[in-house]
Amino acid sequence: MVMILSLLITFLFKKVHFIFTVLLCMLIGFVYSVAFELSVLALFVVIFINGAISAIVVGLVKAGYYANRKANNIKQS
Fold first, then answer.
1. Structure confidence at residue 73 (pLDDT)
2. pLDDT above 90 covers what percent of the chain?
3. What is the rounded distance in angstroms from the CA atom of residue 53 to the CA atom of residue 74?
């Protein structure tokens, strides 16, 4: 779910900053862990799992956009 949400936010809303997407996914992970009474694992789930996965996905999408811009610049030259 985190990967799909991060991908959709980054792909559809290109102007949204990297950190807002990661923080939103971390908040969703925290709410999920509290809803299922996993308070001991809440910190691990929020920081490591959701934050790291979201950061990787957003970084890959942004890298793809960067590569596309560079390829278009080379093509126009």
1. 95
2. 47
3. 32
pTM for the whole structure = 0.79
- What is the DSSP annotation of 14-76? TTS-HHHHHHHHHHHHHHHHHHTT-HHHHHHIIIIIIHHHHHHHHHHHHHHHHHHHHHHHHHH
Residue with tokens 């992970």: 29
Provide the token pair at 29.
């992970």
Q: In whole angstroms, what is the distance from residue 37 CA to residue 5 CA? A: 23
Distances (CA, A) of 4 to 22, 41, 53, 71: 12, 22, 10, 26
